[in-house]
Amino acid sequence: MEMMFTLTLKTLKLNRKRTLLTVFTIILSVGMMTAVLCGGWSMLRFLQEKEKIYGGDYAYSIEITSQQQAEKLMQGKNVEDVSLFRFAGSSFYGEPSNKTLLAVAEIDDAFVENFSLEQYLSEGRFPLNENEIILTQDFIDDNGLALSVGDTIQLSLGTRVWDEIDTELYGLVNFLGERESFHLNAERTYTIVGIVSEMNESKVASEFNAYSGMSNDGSALTAFVKCNRISKSVYSEAEENAKAAGGQVSSFHSALLLYHGVTGGKGAVKILAAIGAVILLLMAACSAMISNVLSISLQERIKQLGMLASIGATSRQKKASVTIEAFLLGMIGIPFGLLFGLGLTSVVLAMIRISFETAFTFGALELNTHIHWMILLLGSVSGIGSLFFACQTPGRIASKVTVIDTLKQSNVYEVKQKKTPHGKVMSLFFGIYGALASKNIYRNPKRFHAITMSIFLAVVLGLSLYSFSDFMLFQTSMDMKEDGSSYTDVEAAISYKDLQAAVKAISDEGLSADISYRISRYMTATFEEESINSDMAGYFINGNLAELYVVGMDEEHLYALCEENNIDYAAYAAESNRGILINSATGNYGASPSRVVIGSPFFLERESEIELEYSDDSKTVIVQDVVNGNNANIQSQFVRDRAVLIVPMSFFDWLLNGDTYIELAIDTSEHEQVTECLADMGFFQVFDVAKTTENSRQIYTLLKMMVCIFTVLMTMIIGLNVCNTIANTINVRRSEFAVLRSVGMSAVGLKKMLLLESALYGVKSLLLAIPISLIIHYIMYSLISKGMTPFMFYINLRAYKIAVIMVIFVVVMAMLFSLRSVEKVEIVKELKMGSI
Amino acid sequence: MEILRVENVCKTYDTGETTVNALTDISFSVQKGEFVAIIGASGSGKSTLLHILGGIDRPTSGEVFVDGQSVYERTEDQLAVFRRRQVGLIYQFYNLIPVLNVEENITLPVKLDGRKINKKRLAGLLQALGLIKRRKHLPGQLSGGQQQRVAIGRALMNAPAILLADEPTGNLDTQNTQEIMQLLEASNKIYKQTIILITHDREIALQTDRILEIQDGELIRDEVIR
Question: What is the pTM (predicted TM-score) of this model?
Fold first, then answer.
């Protein structure tokens, strides 16, 4: 074996180019697998740390009533620390209002540490006992108070109750005015020992603006338990510890447990399965490619192995030449691959961090690379595994090489077929060079398929993933303006009688917002045949009954809408039964029910009358203005699958009363604050549309970015593979090239023939890859369009152009890289080597 | 009519540490229609001389004239054209293009020239070479003798000024050897094809008109047999 080792090492040194190419393939393959593992781990660590800061570093909470119980808990199973918290009560420091409202929490020093509150301290320290308090700077500034560290403050602590539903208000819920009542519990005097900034990034602490030390008054308090190690046994431990301490488990920190793999159930299993599948796919692809390069290397050593066979080498020894080569290359490739993977992870995470700053930085916490020994182990194992599987086929071939193979000087480029292609088409355009190129690429079907399949897989995989992310991004952007912002930043559904209160609350908070309100209903109407667009027949029920989305808008915003779209507002101001018909709908309304179309369902002139039916009521509307065509800028604010009829709010006077639900559409840059303000008022149907839209956009942009990075890497690996294979095909045909030169083919002619061969590899791969990609593209479209808001089918031609260019680039670079060795073909030398 | 003239051709290989004089001051001429054998021991320089005559390898010094024109005053591309049109090469190991069938291998030099194939000539060659029934076969489907016939056909397709054969029978059995020699003789006698043949077999050499003997890179004998 020592002899085989030495021989293999020398062979590798002799063919440095091939060896380097193989090592690069291994580095890229191992690097990709390591990057997937490390990237996933780093992301998970970020989410864990973020949740610890945001939600607190605890696994579960137990309701207890005394500090003694807390001390017992500390002795519990797998308990590292216990943080104590109690809602001491509310108070108004002056006339009751949002501004003067104080929500006081009692906390201990463990709470400060485990809920990362230190970062908010701007002056002084956190309280150590029940007579000390810290206040937020905002509270002091908002009330114009001259309070500082060392001052005392007297508070009437009590309970706020929402009278309508007889519920205690917890924390900093907005002042409800007459709807709430205050029940005094105790008068307390505190010494201010510290000032903090608003604890916006702490889920628990942000609900309060004053914090004192723990009292031992026997009232219920919450013990947040931090575990030494989070595992699936956390549930049984929590019950056991609660029982031992005489308390009751109140909640589990489900987000943190999810990130530690404890909860999540099928969802978490699916994610893990997906990551596992990606790794296995990568391993399989990398194995195949490394196997190909080992086969190429073997093929160049057939003669050598035959000679070894002639002097007595056994099958095992011959097979060992392949295994040793893989081992030697792996020894270099795997460590560098791991380093490359870690480096790649760092670069990608940095790109993500910079591109999506809001999502991936959290205070001082940033998305960074985390390395775990398990990642290095798994990366190495996957690399070794890929090499092991890659060795099998070439090893088997090596073990079977005979002496005759050497004497016959047989190689994989021996033409085994009885016929070769005519090459007539290529001959027509490129003469003898085209004909030879056409015949040459088919001379070894296995090698041909290896090259074209590699290119095919890269193109199909890249385009399919790109299609998916592109469609998802398009879906998200359907509800956005051209600049990427949403049409509405905050949406809410409230009772008509609460409208003024909501507007006042937002104003009181000092938030800048443009609030429009509307009422909307789906109504039906029957249309005459001549008014129906037969191309959109699918829109109509029973041939002539259609549903419209009728929206009543407030005066101010209806006026603004008219101004924006060059519509005369005067008619709408004068009469309430006039409407603007947005005559456009997207759906499966065309002749083919499976195809999504966009079109105008109606042929209506101005001043046409529509008889709208709603429940038992019937109302006549005069269509004052008709807006035909695809009007995304108006329609995106409402619905896409129905024509929209916009009327003055007064049209709905017959329907509107205090309890009628209306929709608020609020434009504001302070969408998070407005959402919080409305939610604090007790409105449940409040949606931060801007945030959701931005999050979705970020996710899908991130997905697109990851797809591009993945595709580039796969292209590099496959490009190297193609390079290697094509280089080999040239290498073993040197004698043939010498003969062609000797019968009068010029050097330029030889290069022309080889370039045509490379072009054919690319063209033949694309001929299959493009149609398959288009089919998958359509399947993606069908799944996404049907599952979400329907949209018309489109093809992102740019992606396909890029794919074609990349394929051409890869094969031409591979050929140019190999042509340098062709230039060194010495006719005499090659002819002397013997037959082809 | 003189078809080939070699004047003071030398070929030296400088391998760094040593200098090898493969050919030293070779001079001779060949008339059109002559059948010449070059003999000599292994390593004497026969193949080197043949490669120089065929425009494959440049001499270190000296001149080669084919049909009155200097071979080596040409550029590389012009040499390629020269090899296509004025030289026909036959090798010991046939050196056919594996992906081209018999017909395509024979017509390869014509196609490289971008000219139309003379179908009559092709048919005649195939007939003479006994390859009519095998015209669509690939080299891998032919015997050694058949492959060498294809090589001869390729060499003759363009009716070259000189036909150079490097041990054309070296890889063949006795019967095939005889057949190949008969073919060469026929092309020489009937078509006045000038042939220069390298061989180490004196019996084959005696079937030609003239023998040139090379020893250690020098022409030591130039004898007319017939």
Answer: 0.68
